[in-house]
Amino acid sequence: MYDKDNVFAKIIRGEIPSKRVVENEYAISFYDVNPMCKTHVLVVPRGEYENILDFARRATPAEQAGFWDCFVKTADKLGVNAEFNVFANAGLAAPIFNQSVFHFHLHLIAGDKTPACKDLMREMLCEK
Ligand code: AMP
């Protein structure tokens, strides 16, 4: 069940600070506090959706359009052009990365990897 007190719900309500990139009626984007790359921004719908599947199933056409408009404007503003990764984690037992905040968000990453990201990738390669 969706938890209204998750950290992104608080950011959307303005209860905790965030470094915002773009916002519209249906979605916002802001910098990740623990970046994996030089540019690491999260694109988040304002509506209460736990993960990407929940959003794709239940969000209204206006919410979906607003979300993608925020994504495009964010990518344009950051100048990522065609050189980036986008991913969404879902659930505590996802195979590569677990979801830690249960409000749907896309990670948009670009530019050089941070040392933390390089360490993580090394760890993953060593895992049997
Ligand atoms: P996930 O593990 O896919 O749910 O991603 C959650 C992301 O939210 C992680 O990359 C965190 O670094 C990021 N995060 C957690 N708290 C905050 C916050 N207060 N502001 C910005 N990003 C956050």
Q: What can you tell me about this protein's structure?
A:
This protein is α+β, with helices and mostly antiparallel strands and 128 residues long. 34% of the residues lie in helices and 23% in strands. A hairpin with a 3-residue loop joins β1 (20-23) and β2 (27-31). It is globular and about 40 Å long. The termini are far apart. Adenosine monophosphate binds next to loops.
How are the secondary structure elements laid out?
Elements: H1 7-12, E1 20-23, E2 27-31, E3 37-45, H2 52-58, H3 61-78, E4 85-87, E5 106-113, H4 115-126
Antiparallel strand pairs: 1-2, 2-3, 3-5, 4-5
Bound molecules: adenosine monophosphate.
Residues 7, 16, 18, 32-34, 89, 99-101 line the site of adenosine monophosphate (AMP).
Structural key phrases:
globular, 128 residues, 4 helices, alpha+beta, five-stranded antiparallel sheet, binds adenosine monophosphate, 5 strands
Q: Give the number of helices.
A: 4
**β-strand number:** 5
Strand content: 15-25%
- Overall average residue pLDDT: 96
Strand order of the largest sheet: 1-2-3-5-4
Ligand roster: adenosine monophosphate
Secondary-structure-based class equals alpha+beta
The major beta sheet can be summarized as: 5 strands, antiparallel
How many angstroms does the end-to-end distance come to?
34 Å
- The dominant shape is globular
Q: Helix proportion of residues, in percent?
A: 25-40%
**Radius of gyration over alpha carbons?**
15 Å
